[in-house]
Design brief:
Layout (H helix, E strand, L loop, with lengths): L14 H4 L1 E4 L6 E3 L16 H13 L6
Antiparallel strand pairs: 1-2
The chain binds zinc ion (ZN).
Zinc ion binds next to helix 2.
Length: 67
């Protein structure tokens, strides 16, 4: 019988992809290559997707979120 090797199809992890490229300016979590980063006008750095969700929710609770 053939052995299903699908679980290995992704190959070895790319060391560069695993290295953090930034720190979230809000929660200081490391942000990795390939993860989305968000910026707002008051920040020097970027923040992570989780903090963006929180920011968006806070903005929605203030009313219409328009640029
Ligand atoms: Zn964050």
């Amino acid at each position: 019988m053939a052995v299903n090797l699908d679980r290995f199809a992704e190959g070895l992890p790319d060391p560069q992809a695993a290295a953090p490229v930034a720190e979230c300016a809000k929660c200081w979590r490391e942000i990795y290559a390939g993860e989305p980063q968000y910026h707002d006008m008051y920040e020097l750095g970027g923040h992570c997707a989780e903090c963006e969700d929180e920011r968006a929710e806070a903005e929605e609770s203030e009313g219409e979120a328009e640029e």
